[in-house]
Structure formats: structure tokens, C-alpha cells
Design goal:
Radius of gyration: 25 Å
Number of helices: 9
Number of strands: 5
Order of helices and strands: EEHHEEHHHEHHHH
Shape: globular
Largest sheet: 3 strands, antiparallel
Oligomer: single chain
Structural class: mainly alpha
Distance between the termini: 43 Å
Low-confidence stretches: 1-14, 238-249
């Protein structure tokens, strides 16, 4: 559907076009905001959901909401308004949001994988860390990871703006360029650091965790039970009783949480492999002339679906969110 627009920039005729692709992205954005916002509400409403692991889950949900509200909104505006000369400042912000929001989501996937890696590689220090860590500490970690992205993105933005200014370019037409004016080597390196590196780290962590879990289960099966000598029971001495009523640890509950967290990581890895990884591989090949319009549309449609599939996987794979969902449905 194309609607004429009376606004023209120079000799460029502007028009508004709502394609099936634009409508698809708009619907996905609405569903994304609803599902991820609902998970964030469960985290805020129920204290049982406020765990260290779930903090990274909510960080992922907030990233998807920001991507839909900012990045996808600007991209939709850029796609709907055909043959329009946009100001350079707006196009630079669009490219900034593309890098930062997408990198933030992959960065959060990396934090979740590292969290599981720590839990299985050093369980005692991880347990002590969970017992002594506050939500403020997790917020600081998330803030540092967000600033880490800007360490690489801001220099690229500055170079892009300087090149535009040196060429006296004040508008970009038709529509905003996705690559900008920064040197090819700098743009490609930025893409590898923010996207290629995290994906490689996530897959490496997952395969290490998978191998470790297989070895642990095999070792448990091969354990030989040795009969311990019988010790006569002694009546409890009230003088040695501990006045502090500390809740006893439930080994079966801890094992269930570990299995649930591993299941969550596995589902996120499957989602990442099916939705995020193909688009990243395609983007890495485009600068070398390997590209296809139909492939691009399919891959980025899958990429958009990750914002919907991830929250559904999180709700039904994490016991605390699943219990909170049941409580909400019963109200």
C-alpha cells in the first residue's frame, strides 16, 4: 500500500509504503513488547523470581523491548517512507541503535552462558556469590556490559560523522544507509567484536558445560558405595543446640534448579542458532559481495522472531517464572 506525500526533498519524491514486511515487523514488535514486558512484571511482582540468574533474563527482556521501541521503530520509519532524504543526524542515530541494541542482546546471552559456566566450573564460589550478591551488584554488572558496547560503537559513530561532515553531506537519500561512511575495515572489525565474538563465546561455553555435565553424570553412575561403620545414636544435648533456625539446604531442589537453568540455556542456544546466527553469518558475507535479496528477507524475519521465542522459552523453562505465571492465572 503506497500513499503519496506532498513533502519533497530536492528532486526526490517522497511516498509512504506499507509493505507486508513492514506490517510483519510491526506485529512482531507489539507481541515482543507484550511478552517481554509481562516477564519483567513477573520479576518485579514476585520475590521468588528475583534471583541472580533471573536478573540476566530480565536484562534480555528489557533489551528486546528497547529494540522494538527504538531500533525497530526507526527502521520501520526508514522503510515506510520511500525515497526520502533524511538528515544525517537521524541516520547516524539509526545506525547507532542498530549496533547497540543488537549487541546488547547478544551481550546478555553471553552473560547468561558465563553465569552457567561459572556455576558448573566452580559451584562453591558460585553458590557463595549468589548468597552474598544483591540486585544492585547485578545492576552494576549490567551497566558495565552496556558501557563496554559503547567503547567500540562511539568511536565508529564519531568517524562516521566526521566523514559526512568533511564531504559536506547533510542528508542521506534515498533513505538511511545501513553501513555509514566509516572505513570498511573499522566497520567490519566492529561487527566481529560486537557480534561474532559473543556468538563464538556463547557456543564455546555451552559445549564446555555440556561436556562437563556428561562427565559428571557418568562419574555418578560409576560411584561405588562403601558401607560406613555403624555409630550408636546419642541423645541430643540441649546445650549444644544451635539457636539460629537456618533453613536446611534441599539437594533435590538445587539439582532441579541446575537442570532448569541448563534447559533454559539449551533452549536459548537453539533459538540463537536458528534466529541470530544465520543473520550474523549473512552480514559477514555481504561485504564480500555474497548476498541475496530473498535470503536477506528470510533471515531477518527469523531474527525478528527471536524477540518473541526467547521470552516464551524463558517463562516455561524457569520454575520460578512458571510458578509466578500459574499464580497470575489463578488470580
Amino acid at each position: 500500500m503506497t500513499l503519496p506525500n506532498r513533502t519533497n526533498h530536492g528532486n526526490i519524491s517522497a511516498s509512504i509504503s506499507f509493505s507486508s514486511r513492514s506490517i510483519y515487523y510491526l506485529l512482531v514488535d507489539f507481541v515482543t513488547v507484550f511478552f517481554n514486558g509481562f516477564i519483567s512484571y513477573l520479576f518485579y511482582r514476585f520475590t521468588s523470581c528475583q534471583t541472580v540468574f533471573n536478573c540476566y533474563v530480565v536484562k534480555l527482556c528489557v533489551g528486546y523491548i528497547a529494540q522494538s521501541a527504538v531500533k525497530h521503530l526507526f527502521e520501520l520509519f526508514n522503510d515506510v517512507y520511500l525515497h526520502v532524504a533524511f538528515p544525517v543526524g537521524m541516520c547516524i542515530f539509526l545506525r547507532y541503535s542498530r549496533f547497540v541494541e543488537s549487541a546488547h542482546i547478544l551481550n546478555t546471552h553471553t552473560l547468561i552462558a558465563l553465569n552457567r559456566l561459572w556455576a558448573i566450573a566452580a559451584p562453591f564460589s558460585y553458590r557463595n556469590y549468589n548468597q552474598s550478591t544483591s540486585l544492585m551488584t547485578i545492576a552494576k554488572i549490567c551497566a558495565v556490559s552496556f558501557l563496554y558496547i559503547h567503547v567500540f560503537v562511539i568511536p565508529w559513530m564519531v568517524v562516521d560523522a566526521v566523514v559526512k561532515n568533511s564531504r559536506n553531506i547533510t542528508i542521506e537519500a534515498p533513505n538511511c544507509s545501513p553501513s555509514g561512511s566509516a572505513p570498511f575495515a573499522m566497520s567490519y572489525a566492529l561487527q566481529l567484536v560486537l557480534f561474532g565474538g559473543p556468538i563464538l563465546a556463547i557456543l564455546t561455553c555451552y559445549f564446555y558445560i555440556l561436556c562437563k555435565r556428561i562427565k559428571i553424570k557418568a562419574a555418578r553412575k560409576n560411584l561405588v558405595v562403601v558401607a560406613a561403620p555403624l555409630i550408636p545414636l546419642q541423645p541430643p544435648n540441649p546445650l549444644n543446640a544451635n539457636p539460629v533456625n537456618r533453613p536446611a539446604e534441599n539437594p533435590s531442589r538445587n539439582k532441579q534448579n541446575k537442570d532448569a537453568h541448563f534447559l533454559t540455556l539449551t533452549l536459548l542456544i537453539i533459538s540463537l542458532t536458528c534466529t541470530l546466527l544465520p543473520s550474523q553469518v549473512y552480514s559477514s558475507l555481504v561485504p564480500f559481495g555474497i548476498q541475496s535479496r530473498s535470503t536477506y528477507l528470510v533471515l531477518w524475519a527469523l531474527y525478528a522472531l527471536s524477540a518473541v521465542s526467547d521470552p516464551l522459552l524463558l517463562v516455561f523453562s524457569i520454575p520460578s517464572f512458571r510458578a509466578a505465571l500459574k499464580t497470575c492465572l489463578h488470580c
